[in-house]
Specification:
Number of helices: 8
Order of helices and strands: EHEHEHEHEHEHHHE
Number of strands: 7
Distance between the termini: 41 Å
Shape: globular
Structural class: alpha/beta
Radius of gyration: 18 Å
Length: about 280
């Protein structure tokens, strides 16, 4: 549904679909969009992962995202969705559009991370990473675009700073996130004259469960037994030119916020880095 007039930053009357919304970056993005007036459709897998070396979000996590939005006076609807399943994604987008009269905003936050040297990557690890991060984004973009009618639409895909560079032990992750950038840049060109924009946000380390888990800590502190958050913090800080170990999930939401509002109307096909200075090292 589209309001005819609105102030800068107002998303009242807009329908937004956010994947991976049960916690972390997705939760922060969903809350930010709801605060600006959008009705947010929250989705997440809410099931154990096939290859991720840490627990994925649960149904309770998704319910808490919905409660937090409602406590703030926002509007939302939550649903379980596996972005790897193209038929399920298309059916969900169609049902949302039928009910709401269209879909205005898509933010794809659903994603996983895993790690191993290339020679130790199993077919299952490779396939699950690409299916979730890259194909999942494609399924959502393809399903939503036909419902972005009129002359306004916003697509923001969450990639990663590892999608802008090679990363040891994360080849499958980097490949998937690099692919997201190419996908969304192509969509931006296909829809450049329609009023629909398509952009990418590339975060660095973010203060979420994807980063804070024993498997990830051990990757960056292999010399320590059962490293703690306090022990790995200085190591993460040394990786950042700003000497900040990780940014809050709200920093990613701020970047999305910029791209979906009127401030982003002339931006499409762009990569917005939330990199704590890491982008300064890239061409």
């Amino acid at each position: 549904m589209r309001a005819q007039s609105r102030s800068e930053g107002d998303l009242t009357g807009r329908t937004a679909l956010v994947t991976g919304a049960a916690r972390g970056q997705g939760r922060a993005v969903a809350r930010a969009l709801a605060r600006r007036g959008a009705t947010v459709r929250l989705t997440d897998l809410c099931a154990p992962g096939d290859t991720a070396p840490y627990p994925l979000a649960t149904g309770d996590d998704l319910a808490e995202t919905a409660r937090s939005i409602e406590r703030d006076g926002g509007r939302c609807h939550a649903a379980v969705l596996d972005v790897r399943d193209p038929a399920a994604v298309t059916a969900f987008a169609d049902s949302v559009a039928d009910e709401a009269g269209g879909i205005d905003i898509l933010v794809t936050c659903a994603g996983i991370v895993g790690f191993a040297p290339v020679t130790e990557l199993s077919d299952a690890m490779w396939s699950d990473m690409l299916a979730t991060n890259l194909s999942g984004t494609f399924h959502c973009v393809r399903a939503v675009l036909p419902h972005m009618t009129g002359d306004w639409g916003r697509i923001v895909a969450i990639s990663s700073m590892s999608g802008r560079q090679g990363t040891p032990n994360l080849a499958h992750y980097s490949a998937s996130k690099w692919g997201v950038i190419g996908l969304v840049k192509s969509v931006a060109l296909e829809y450049a004259d329609t009023g629909i924009t398509a952009n990418i946000v590339c975060p660095t380390n973010v203060d979420t469960p994807m980063l804070h888990n024993p498997a990830m800590y051990s990757l960056f502190a292999p010399d320590l037994d059962n490293p703690t958050r306090e022990e790995v913090e200085p190591r993460y800080a040394r990786m950042s030119p700003m000497r900040i170990p990780w940014c809050p999930a709200e920093a990613v939401a701020d970047a999305v916020d910029h791209l979906v509002g009127e401030s982003g109307r002339y931006i499409t096909g762009s990569v917005l880095d939330v990199g704590l200075g890491g982008a300064a090292r890239m061409p």
